[in-house]
Specification:
four-stranded antiparallel β-sheet; globular; Alpha-Beta Plaits; alpha/beta; Rossmann fold; 30% helix; six-stranded mixed β-sheet
């Protein structure tokens, strides 16, 4: 009998972009593999992660976790989930907080102390066993405690939504190190964020979402040629912004155009092309009478992943 993959997604449709044909998403992850899910705001990252853990149902396609549908009792025992805004119970100590969830998962009493200590050790919080959650001031520490809660029942699949949000550079680096150590235990990870940044080095797989549609998805080494020219750009205009928006929306190399409010003159978008092609795009805007103040690329979008 063939053993099913740890995570299998087949022909999943996250949403429909007006006027465009819905794109299906399919991928497989095995033990120890890590998928980074990246994309601009409102691109469908959280929707995908919620579908994987069974919080949000998908109308089309199929998801299986070790052969079980998400949300089933069997799948829930195999999955740990950290939402973008994790709930921490301020009145509890760390051990009480993890104990509450250990009981909710039905873990046997004689195993609970070991599993609680082990989950805190994995996230480098073993010294916080008796610390009140209300006394945890660091965003990084609180985020790692939420991670420990997701690990307390020793899941096979760990799903973390926007795990580096609000963390400073030191905290983000520490979180990435912790996630790498968790991966090394053989667990499969799905991590999301607006950009990969320091998470790029963790990922064996990548899924880029734009407008609830997959722009690219698969193993990193296979995707490198496809994403080598993909860049997140930010352009500030002096005037004639509606004309710039019209022309950019009509360019097939431009994806997910966002207008920064209240700074009406600032546009952010994904561009699929070389640096010379981007210069040509800007020149075409100038010829149309659009004045450009400045432009910059966000190097953290794919981190080092798009490099050779």
């Amino acid at each position: 009998m063939q053993i099913p993959p740890l995570l299998q997604v087949e022909r999943l449709v996250l949403g429909r972009d007006s006027g465009k044909q819905a794109q299906e998403l399919s991928f497989v992850l095995n033990p120890g593999e890590v998928m980074g899910v990246v994309g601009p705001p409102d691109s469908g990252k959280s929707a995908l992660l919620r579908a994987l853990v069974g919080i949000q149902r998908s109308e089309t396609g199929q998801i299986r976790i070790c052969g079980f549908p998400p949300g089933s009792l069997q799948a829930r025992a195999l999955v740990g989930y950290v939402p973008s805004v994790p709930a921490l119970y301020e009145e509890f100590t760390c051990v009480e907080y993890l104990g509450f969830f250990a009981e909710a998962f039905g873990l046997e009493n004689h195993y609970r102390p070991y599993l609680i200590r082990e989950s805190l050790r994995l996230v480098r919080l073993e010294d916080c066993l008796r610390t009140a959650i209300a006394d945890l001031r660091s965003h990084g520490v609180r985020r790692r405690l939420a991670l420990a809660r997701a690990l307390v029942h020793d899941p096979h699949l760990l799903v973390v939504d926007d795990g580096l949000a609000r963390l400073d550079r030191v905290e983000a680096r520490q979180m990435v190190e912790v996630l790498g150590e968790i991966r090394n235990t053989g667990k499969t990870l799905v991590l999301s964020g607006p950009s990969l940044g320091e998470m790029a080095g963790l990922c064996s797989h990548l899924c880029i979402l734009v407008g609830h549609q997959p722009l690219a998805c698969g193993e990193v080494r296979a995707l490198r040629p496809r994403i080598s020219n993909l860049r997140m750009m930010q352009v500030q205009f002096l005037d004639r912004v509606p004309e710039a928006v019209r022309r950019l929306e009509g360019d097939r190399r431009v994806f997910h155009l966002l207008q920064n409010m209240p700074n009406y003159n600032l546009l952010r978008f994904l561009f699929d092309g070389t640096a010379d092609e981007f210069d040509e795009l800007l020149e075409s805007l100038r010829r149309a009478g659009v004045s450009i103040v400045s432009y910059a690329e966000d190097p953290s979008f794919l981190g080092l992943m798009a490099g050779p």
